[in-house]
Amino acid sequence: MSTKKKSSGRQSNLFTFFQKTPKTEKSDEITPIHGDSGKDKVIDEAIDDLENIPAKKEITTPSNKNSPKIANGTNKPKITTTPLSVKRKLSKTEEKQDVSIILDDDSNSGENVEGFLSCAGSSFTDSPASPQFSFKRRRAIISSDEEEDDDLNKSKSDRKIRKNEDKVDKNLIEVKEVLNDVKRENDSEKMSISKEKMEQDVPIVDDDSCQLISQKKEKSTGKAHSFIELFNFSNNDGEEIISDQKQQSKSSSNVLKTPKSTKASHDGENKDGDDHFPHLDFEFLKKPRDAQKRKPTDPEYDSRTLFVPPDFLKQQSPGHQQWWKLKSAHFDTILFFKVGKFYELYHMDAVIAVENLSLVYMRGKYAHCGFPEASYGRYAEQLVNKGYKVARIEQTETPEQLAERQKKSKNSTNNCSSPRIEREKVVRRELCRLTTIGTKTFGILDGNDSRDSNDVAVDPSPNYLLALTERKSDNRSNDGFSRFGACFVDCSVGKFFLAEFDDDRFQSNLRTLFAHNLPVQLIYEKGALSSGTITLLQTMLSSVPKEILFPKRQFMTAEDTLDLLSEELYFGSGIDQWPSTFRSLLDDSPIPKPSRQHKLCISAFGAILWYLRECLIDVDTVSMRQIELYSPPSLNFDDNSGNICPMSSSEAWKGKHTILDGSSLLNLHILPSLSSNNNTNSNTSFSLFNTLNRCLTASGKRLLRQWISTPTCDKETLLGRQSCIKWLMADERRPHLAKWMELLKKIPDLERLFQRIHTIGSKHRADTKHGGGGHPDSRAQLFDSDRYNKRKIRDLLVVLDGLEDLMRLKRMFLNANEMDAEKSVPSMLTNCFGSNYKEMNEDLQFFKNAFDRQSALEHGVIQPNKGVDEEYDLACSDVISCESHLNEFLERMRKVFKCSTIKFVGTGRNSYQLEIPDAFCKSLGTDFRLTSQRKGFKRYYTDELQQLFDKLTNSETQRDLISAEVTRRVFADFSQRKDKWKNIVNNLAQFDCLISLTLFAQSSPKKMCFPEFCYDSEKPFLSISKGFHPSLIDAVGVDYIPNDCELGGKNSPLMLLTGANMGGKSTYMRQIAALVVMAQIGSMVPANSMKLTPVDRIFCRIGASDRLVAGQSTFYVELAETNIILRQATSYSLVLIDELGRGTSTFDGTAIACAVLKYLSTKICCRGLFSTHYHALCKFVANNPNVKLGHMACMVENANLEDPTMEAITFLYTLAEGASDKSYGFYTAKMAGIDVEIVRKAFAASKMLEENS
User: In which residue ranges is the amino acid composition biased (Basic and acidic residues) (predicted)?
Assistant: First the structure.
């Protein structure tokens, strides 16, 4: 092989795909099949002459600014034949193929150019003095191995190459045709066979630089050779295909044919704009069946798999057989199929990739595209975020391992002549990772090489994968009540949550679970969910990808789940070693046995475990042993008014939280909408979470979301947070606060990094044996393995640096505390920097002294210092001992010969030769064996010296074997210590949340106050003076008007709110709810003052729409939500109902609204706001002491009782006592642009209806 050193400039990786016919000979020398050997010799000599034409003039290349230029007489590319060269074609198949000369781009110099010649035929010039080579590709992709290469430049380069392909040198074609005509005369009988067209793609890749591949004298590198043979046919393969040509011609869609000539090749290729690829005609894709040949109509049909006919597989190359077998097992997944240094996508996968990733099709009949290995993370992330499943297929075998496997296979099948054994001559590939939007773990291949960029914290929101199953509730089986089992996991941090609960027929608890823990992917048991639950999933989680699992074999039973968890890979057989949370779900038994109340959630855990096994991250995630129980609000299905518990003491509220169901969280804009993860929503920026979120760490943001979705009622917690914010807001703390914030910004997402380090240190992933139970990633042959090893070291160093920043933050906090001796620091803040910090400091000191950080980061390997790894230390001690014995031997020889110049020389296997001057060699004994000599010196081995050297060699080999395992052990050691650091991370998140609430209070342009809680009031109450909506106080161009609120206590608990359309009623109701939530997370609120009794639950019936999928009208949805309020509200609840009854007739709506309002005011007596446009309600509640009237004021100019279009209304957005005169709906119609005449006619009709009623 003709090679050059890899140029220092930026190189381009060039990939060429083209056609070839089956091999006919295994040796380099090709013997003609028949015909006149003399004529053949003349032809071969002519070809050799053409191959050795000197390149005196500049090679013609496409007009591409990235194309290299070869100056005259410099770095002339040598044109040689290849295993797919013209000689081979003339001897067997006589197929005309194209020549692809791909030149590497050296950005530093136009003189240092390397050529890469790949051919399935050859073309030559007719003028030795003026050779010109034209680019002629069958399929080519020019890709950079740098991650930051621009796809647009790649697309432009591809278009320019295609433009120049039409400029083929006619002289080259003429010479080729003459040679072929001569040969055709000799092989006329064989030509009928060789004219049959078959296509075989052969990717020829050189991993580091573009080189020339020669057939005879020059050898390709091991890696390039393995890529060349990737899709090769054996001799038997070729014979098998030739014998089946008639069948192939009938099913042209299954076999890609080889063109007869250059022109035919161009005509047969799939041009730009023609998207009809052969896979669209495959019958088994038109009428798919699963791997077990089941039709889609079969109840057991598995859409994840595909049946690929064996006859079709026989027609494929070994490489494509691998692809189709993997596609058969993962039909719903896009395969990133590793070929050399590139990931390839074929057929339907290529179409999706081109449409979504802006890739370019490679030239050819079938859909085909690819990209470099370094770009995997970027492209996989794009597809996964769009809802696709992506599988990473790696080569898990080296060429040497392939050769050894072939040798063993050959020895075991000497008596078997089956051609299929030869077809296995292809490196082994395995599925190493299957990624979905719910199983993202931000692995090493997904990251980047910048230590400064915290790539794992770009989006700190948890990505929950949720498993759900349902059964009829044993308690209320006849009333439509269900019992749900759920398990959801955030794979990026390795944390599981299990829940099992009863629910009403409206799935209230399930809705709350979805709102509190928004899943990004859902799996559920086939046939287990009721129609109502399916409808809920299709409406509330319409944009969330869903998969159905078969009962038992996929969605495992609780018993099967426990049996699987008993394996050593997970929890082990000893129940006492299982996580305590999981043990609480089991019966008291020596063997794992699920309790009756938790069978469903354990079964859901089994479904998650099965799915994680499919994605090959089950051990990584479960071995984190982070399992928690989730308890949604328990429902009291009886009439709440008769079971109200007295809550007139702080002890009664201890440990309790305010309940906000899914409807309240979304309709009150407490959390971002469910669709905000996938789509930009204008309401998202006005959610309370985004308003309060000033957190600087990922863990802090996740905790703040939890605080807001489940506010606390605990007095100690509320007062503690208030005191912390008050202390942090002091003027003397401002300089310290700025420094603390700077440190917080540097701290990475430690929770996700803990999981990543745990995965790297997993012993399961260190098992490299095929079939030995290890992870296939440990066997993957990655071309940029050094880069990935450095990323591993970088992640460890980032965590260590982050923890050291935590220690600096603690020291800075304590220093600030000492300087402020007059005011004591709140205990909640001191607890944030209290326990475990001493142990963490010791651990950090250990890792600081464990290894050289800079050396490890540069080489991607950890060489531990003494005392870190005992086994490694022993191995190093043995090496040192052997070296010491050798030095003692040398000193003894110097004393014996009385010569100080005697020394050891040599390298490698010839090390430690004893070099003795010639003057002392005459007296040597017979035990000195001469090995080599130089002028004046001779070199010897003795038996003793040989034994010492052999012992040293064995010790060094053992040390190197242990050294390869040391890096993993360091990561594993770190992972074992992580449990004690999790509390520190949780405390850090709490400190970050407190700072976030402090920053919000400091940045508010309105007056802020701390709410006062009253736990001993006889009647619940809520009092707000001059309150603002927190999400609107910073709105640009809006002068928001404050409002008061007095509910309960000495006042009426309910307010009937009226007012003009667009007068601010709904905003006022949302404002009250938002201020209550802020108060109960311990935050300051934008108001002059606020006093309240804790709220146990906030109910909201604001805004409604129909549910087409569920067949539910708007009015039905309103009443269903109202029913939940009437059944579950207590006197300590806050109820917000907006315009109930508007979805039906006026009389029906008024009657229903009146009945609901009366029930709330007399039976439940809760605090609430009830808005309406039914002014008749004001008369019905006039004598009800529990209901007071209020309205949103407005000012009317030009009041006209005959023509409402003459009126001008100014909304004051101020709450006033009493009922409003009317709703001014005609003015709203005028504002909306409805024609004035239509408005006047409507007003006339309204007066007529009013008079008749």
Answer: 22-41, 152-167, 183-200, 264-276
- Kindly indicate whether the domain formed by 464-635 is annotated with CATH number 3.40.50.720: no
pLDDT in tens, 1214-1246: 888 888 777 677 777 777 777 778 877 777 777
- Looking at the DSSP assignment, which residues form a beta bridge with residue 13? 143
Show me where the domains of the chain are located.
Answer: 278-405+424-435, 464-635, 693-749+785-910+941-1003, 1012-1222
Is 989 in contact with 462 (CB distance < 8 Å)? no
Domains 278-405+424-435 and 1012-1222 are alike in CATH topology: no
The alpha carbons of the chain give a radius of gyration, in whole angstroms, of: 39
Given this model, what pLDDT does residue 450 score? 55
Which CATH number is associated with domain 693-749+785-910+941-1003? 1.10.1420.10
- In angstroms, the CA 571 to CA 427 distance is 35
| C-alpha pair distances (Å), 571 with each of 515, 578, 606, 772 | 31, 6, 13, 20
Cβ–Cβ < 8 Å for 1147, 1153: no
CA angle at 454 for the pair 451 and 459, rounded to the nearest 5°: 160
Residue 355, classed as helix, strand or coil, is: helix
Return the half-sphere exposure (C-beta side, CA atoms, 13 A cut-off) of residue 725.
Answer: 25
CB-neighbour burial class of residue 1252 (10 A; exposed 0-12, middle 13-18, buried 19+): exposed
How many residues make up the chain in this entry?
1253
The parts of the chain modelled with pLDDT lower than 70 are 1-275, 411-424, 447-458, 474-480, 633-648, 673-685, 768-773, 819-823, 835-836, 1035-1038, 1103-1112, 1199-1201, 1223, 1250-1253
User: At 720, which amino acid appears?
Assistant: G
Backbone angles phi, psi at 141, to 5 degrees: -135, 130
* Cβ pair 828, 721 in contact under 8 A: yes
> Beta strands 1089-1092 and 626-629: pairing type?
unpaired
Per-position DSSP letters for 531-576, written without gaps between them: HHHHHHHHHHTTTS-EEEE-BTTTB--HHHHHHHHTSTTTT-S-GG
pLDDT of residue 548: 95
Q: Cα separation of 130 and 55, whole Å?
A: 8
Tell me, which fold does domain 278-405+424-435 have in CATH? MutS, DNA mismatch repair protein, domain I (3.40.1170)
Topology of domain 1012-1222 in CATH is Rossmann fold (3.40.50)
Cβ-based neighbours of 579, under 8 Å, separated by 6 or more: 571, 625, 626, 627
- Give helix then strand counts, H and E, for the chain: 41, 30
Q: Which of 704, 662, 721, 655 is nearest to 1096 (CA)?
A: 655
Amino acid at 992: D
Element containing residue 465 per DSSP (H, E):
strand 464-472
Q: Are the CB atoms for 435 and 389 separated by under 8 Å?
A: yes
In this structure, the strands spanning 390-395 and 334-339 are parallel
Tokens 């230390």 -> residue: 873
φ, ψ of residue 1046 to 5 degrees: the values are -130, 105
CA 1027 to chain centre: 43
> Which amino acid would we find at residue 996?
S
Nearest to 78 by CA among 33, 47, 48, 115: 115
Backbone region of residue 141 per phi and psi (left: phi > 0; alpha: psi in -120 to 50; beta: other values): beta
What is the DSSP track for 889-927?
HHHHHHHHHT-TT-EEE--GGG-SEEEEEGGGTTT--TT
φ/ψ of residue 636, rounded to 5? -105, 105
Please name which of 215, 223, 13 lies closest in space to residue 114, comparing C-alpha atoms: 13
Q: Does residue 1088 contact residue 1009 with C-beta atoms inside 8 Å?
A: yes
d(CA 307, CA 329): 9
pLDDT for 1138 equals 85
Cβ 392 vs Cβ 371: under 8 Å: no
pTM of the model: 0.73
For residue 956, with 0-12 CB atoms within 10 Å meaning exposed, 13-18 middle and 19 or more buried, which class applies? Answer: middle
328, 558, 602 from 611: Cα distances, Å: 18, 15, 14
